[in-house]
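In response to a reviewer's request, we include the raw inputs and outputs for one of the modeled complexes. The two entities were modeled together in a single run.
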Amino acid sequence: MWTFGRKIAAGFTLAFLLLVTIGAVAYRSINSLTDTSKSVTHTHEVLENISEMVSLMKDAETGQRGYIITGDQPFLEPYNNALNGLPKVVEKLRTLTADNPNQQKRISQAEPLIKAKLEELQQTIDLRRKGDVAQVTQIVRGGAGKKFMDDLRAVAAQMEQEERELLAKRAEEVEAAASSAQKTIIYGTLLCLLLVTAAAFMITRSLSGQIGLAVQHVQSSSVELQSTANQQASGAKESSTAMSEITTTIGELLATSRQIAESAQRVAHIAEETSKAARSGDQTVEKAHESVTSIKRQVDLIVTHMLDLGKKSQQIGGILEIINELAEQTNILAINATIEAAGAGDAGKRFAVVADEIRKLADRVAGSTKDIRVLIEEIRAAVNTTVMATEGGTKAVDLGARQFTEVTTALKQITSLLGTTTEAAREIELSTKQQATAVEQVNVAISSVAQATRETEASLTQTLQTATQLTGLSRELTRLIQPTASA
Amino acid sequence: MRDLSPIVQTVSELRNAFDRSYSLPPSSPETEQIENMLAVRLSGNPYAIRVTEITGLASNRKTVAIPSPILALLGVAGIRGSLVPIYSLAELLGYTRDMEPARWLALCGTDDEVGLGFSDLEGYIRVPMAQVYPASQENKTHEYVKDVARVGGLVRPVISITSLVEMIKRRCAENRVSSKQR
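The model returned the following structure tokens for the whole complex.
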């Protein structure tokens, strides 16, 4: 696609070429006219010299006649001037007509005639000077001089005739050249006007289209820029608000950091106190551990006694089994005694009573044995439960002892860790103070950023105004370029 | 722990009762007729055995099993220096043999003593004669039950040991005859 400069340069180049063409044609016509004019001048000069040649011949003849008639020397002045001027005039004629062979030929014809005439004049003058007037008259009456003059006039007339013909011809050529130059200038100017107008129309149209399109783009971009500037202004306003909030938050953070530093200081103090308490607790736990060990010994003793009691209960159970067995055997014996007494008839009745009493006693003993067995079982179960509970207690005491050991270890670890905690709390305090300092610096930086944001907001507002102005200018430019389109 | 005072009281009562039985004069013949019985349980069913029909009671005697065509024979046991055949009382009455060993032995017969084994002896009971009835058709669970005794609201069939012993002897005799014939 052609650029504006290229199009304009092309238009101007066309106009320049046309002007150059017209100028060249005009220059050529003027040159031709000048040449023709020079030729005319030359022809007039030739005509003038021909006339002068004839005139000088007349002057010579006039001087000769006056001297002849008067015999006075002053009348010879024209003759003498002619004698001096004629060679120059003839020579000049020959030079002026060097390009014309016909004229050169006629000059060659005229020169002998001039020479002959001048010789006739010189002869007559010399004769008069000698006083031979008759001879002079005779010579004059002989007409040779007249003939020479007539012939010379005829030659001069021929030369003049040819020069006048040349003059007429060159006048025609001048007229033709002038007409050609006029036509060239008129038509060339018209053509140039047409072409320049067409080029101007096309360039204007093309440039209007392109500039209009570009202006439309500029307008569209201006609108977008305006919208973007609006959004950025809004964003900058929000950023400014956010910065204010951040500044507030950082202020709160700073206060919190200071509180944390104070809390860390308190924590360090409390950790030291706790460390002391933990050391004291360690001693207490050691004492408690000794107590638990003593309890464990007592419980072990109780378990031993309870196990003995369980064994005794088992022994009682064994004795009870024997008693039960005895009661059963007694019962059997009593039953058998009853049977025997029944077999003995009346003699055995009293024995039967005794046997029955023994059997009843055995029955009762057996019943009591059952009760005692239940009781013994309960005692054994209680002993077992107690032993198990005591063993559980032993285990609990063992566990408690182990836990006390663990507690002691834990308390030592706590003491150690509390030292670390104290150190960490101090480091936290120091770090928090450094953090507070950093937060203050951040606060200052944020304030600067907030200021910058406000300035950005102001500059964005200015940008928005500029974008709005640019949009207006674009519309104005569009209206200037394409009035109908903008309308 | 349980209070031991009731046990002590029971022991005291037993001692007093035993002592009292010897401190009192011999009791007069009972006006009420009493039947002495052994309360037993066969395959979970209550039965009674008249003490007058047995010659003795033994317990925990080792019984050695011997082959016999009589299925109810458990084996032989040593009683008072002689070998006594022991039969399962439950099987003789038609029940299946108890899973538990026959701990108790009721000895019967005078010449050829026979032992009837059972596993569960509930006790020695004294039943008034008025509470002993001939077994009705309803209560007669077996041919060897002639009477029933009402004890404590419970009716116990009374096994006729004499009939059982006779039946055992009869079967033994039949077996001996059949063995000789073979």
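As requested, we also summarize the result in words. Chain A touches chain B at residues 328-329, 331-332, 334-336, 338-339, 342-343, 349-350, 353-354, 357, 359-361, 363-365, 368, 371-372, 375, 378-379, 382 (CB under 8 Å). The radius of gyration of chain A is 82 Å.
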